[in-house]
Amino acid sequence: MRVTNSVPRAGALRIALAMIVAFGVAIAHSSTSFAQDSSVASGIVVGVEVDDSGNLTRFALSDSTGTVTTFDLSFETKYGLENQAGDRWVSSQGEESAEAARRLRDHQERFAPITVSFANGVASSVVEREEGKLETNLGYLFAVFGITWALFFAYVLYMGTKQQVLQHEIAKLKSTLG
Amino acid sequence: MKGSLAIIWAIGRKDLLLEIRNKEVVVSVAGFALLVLVIFTFAIDLNQGNAKLVGPGVLWAGIAFAGVTGLNRAFALEVENSTLEALMLAPISRDLIYLGKALGNFLFIAVAQIIVIPLFAVLFNLIVFRWEMLAIALLTTLGFSAVGTLFAAMSVRVRAREVMLPLLFLPVVTPLLMAAVESTSHMVNGRSWSDMAQWLQLAVAFDVAFIVVSAFIFQHILED
Amino acid sequence: MFKVLNLLDPLLVLSAALMGVTLYLIFQWVPTELNQGAVQRILYFHVPVAWGSMLGIFVVSGSSFMYLWKKNEKWDRLAVASAEVGVVFGGLMLLTGMIWARPVWAVWWTGEAKLTTALILFFIYVAYLMFRAYFPPGGQRQRLAAIIGVIGAIDTPIIYFAANLWSQAHPPIVTGPAADAESTLGSDLGMVLLASTLAFTFIFIYLVQTRYKIRKSEDDLVELKRTSTSSSMPAGAN
């Protein structure tokens, strides 16, 4: 580094480091949080409870260890469930609660596994369990973020080096001329 | 107008006479394209069913790659003999030089196709002697020579000329290549004009756009 | 290194701040899409990056045209800077798109019209940069490069039209779990995309600006070298 004026460089360096740390923290923090503060459970439906008008009120899920958990529902609970033919139905508790009950009963009869995201015993989303979906997909997501930032940093670094060499040469030539 | 046509023809004829004497470009294009076809007959286990499926693609890929080598050769000759400078000294406008050179290249690739396409019909056992084939071949060759002449003239002074021309030429002619492959595929499957109309329209649009733009832009290439 | 990169550039500071907001929105604020799950969040990177590459192509063709018209060095520098940054964005667009397509469509690549067009355009602008790298420096290089820039722009609608026709004749094979599901996010999605696109646009401008300065320094250096050789050598020597 042949930069004579060291004051702004130190400032810039600190800001750059702070930025990298901030990005890192933001990514790390959020990656853990959106997997945690709404926990995920997968398993088969073992019980469906409806009210007088056929609307879904509660359902029970048995996971791979045999533990049965009962989930309450909120108005916002979202559904993304497939029938045996693979057609996907997307709706919410507020819109089509009775249909949700029918779909879950269908899953119960077929022993079709589902994945539930929940917080404090209330399900926020109830979706078809696809092979390792929520878990393994995170790998793809972070591959994208990793590649994007790595490429940007590499490109900026490459440009920085190039510009530094050029400026150095220009300064040298100028000093020999002047 | 008549004078312009005479100039274009004079430049095209000059290239043609040179070619008749040494036969460099046509032989290299036809030879290369034929080799591609022959290699594919080994690479793919050909039978009645898949010949119709892969044949058109192999034919046009072969002609496109072979065309690039021919275009490279055509301009290398001008550079080796320094005849491009002589052409530029002539009191004619640049777009006529471009059209003359494009005419020459069009004739070379067309003659090479007259050799290659019948042999393609034999190797792949497909019926290609139809008016549709003539239209497809003419439109595609026109587009190839329009774009190819422009890029070949541009890359004569590039260090890695042999690499640079295909890198520029092939992505730009992809739409034309798609049109040629798709309409040939319609043809070998026994369908007629109406099925391939959209593709032929695309080829016409491509040809017109690139002939006009290239003729217009050519003055910037030969400017010094 | 850090000094020449000018990390205190208001553009970079602004884009860093916006990127922080965007990351918060992507990972904390916007709900998970029901059909695709977590991978759908790739979209918030993929779309802005694709926008950046389109912006690159647009600037290259515009400034190439201006260079041919006005013959001003400035336009050539802008063209090469945005071509290079556009290719970086374009490469990212292809990569992120593939990574998204794998879990959602169950294939890395397919003959869909937008994909084909993006790939061919990527090749054209890579060829543009290679041409510049291989051609001996001087006015002719800039002129010819500008011609490639203009040709690329003319070819773009034709490529898209052809790719579209082609994908109608050969329907893309997409069999993944959420191949044709509608998004369940609606306006939330638009909001995050807007923030993200803005952040990436600022990064784009910063990168182009940095590349532009390098190009300028290169020209300065050539100029200096010429004056230094002509002044240090006796008159008449070459």
Features:
heterotrimer; A: 178 residues; alpha+beta; OB fold (Dihydrolipoamide Acetyltransferase, E2P); 3 domains; five-stranded mixed barrel; 3 helices; rod-shaped; disordered N terminus; B: 224 residues; mainly alpha; 0% strand
Nutshell version of this structure?
Chain A is α+β, with helices and mostly antiparallel strands and 178 residues long. Chain A is built from 3 helices and 6 strands. In chain A, a hairpin with a 5-residue loop joins strand 1 and strand 2 (56-62).
Task: Describe this protein's structure.
The complex is a heterotrimer of chains A (178), B (224) and C (238). Chain A is built from three helices and six strands, in the order αββββαββα. Chain A has 178 residues and is an alpha+beta fold. Chain A folds into three domains: 1-37; 38-130, Beta Barrel (OB fold (Dihydrolipoamide Acetyltransferase, E2P)); 131-173. Chain A has a five-stranded mixed beta barrel with strand order 1-2-3-6-5. The two termini of chain B are 27 Å apart. Chain B is mainly alpha-helical. With 238 residues, chain C is mainly α. The mean pLDDT of chain C is 81. Chains in contact: A-C, B-C. Chains A and C meet through helix 1, strand 3, strand 6 and helix 3 of A and helix 1, helix 2, helix 3, helix 4 and helix 7 of C.
